[in-house]
Amino acid sequence: MIRVVLPQGLRTLANVSREVQVETSERVTQRSVLDALEAAHPVLKGTIRDHQTQLRRPFIRFFACEQDLSHESPDDPLPAPVAEGREPFLIVGAIAGG
After folding, report:
1. What is the per-residue pLDDT across 12-62, written as a single tens digit (0 to 9) for each?
2. Is the dihedral of CA 26, 35, 52, 7 positive or negative?
């Protein structure tokens, strides 16, 4: 099981707790985790990734094992501790202001 931590707004939208678990039969990548998350919680489709391009939305960031993975390829494997369920994959809503 892959552990995914969601920001408050997405938790409220999906009516889930802070951390959800998803399972992927594929290689554990950003894409496979997000596909599994959206399959389990269809209301999240389009909130994390653009509907058309499937690219990360501008104010969403991805972290794992204290690394910012936001600009990594969505098909790169996630760190082993995430794939093994020991560490969570974090989806973070960026803060902007002025």
Report:
1. 999 999 999 999 988 999 999 999 999 999 999 999 999 899 999 989 999
2. negative
* CA R_g for the chain: 12
In order of 1, 48, 59, 74, the CA distances from 70 in angstroms are 22, 12, 10, 9
CATH 3.10.580.10 describes domain 2-93: no
> Where is 4: in which H helix or E strand?
strand 2-5
Q: Are 73 and 56 in contact (CB under 8 A)?
A: no
What one-letter code names the amino acid at 78? L
Read off the pTM.
0.92
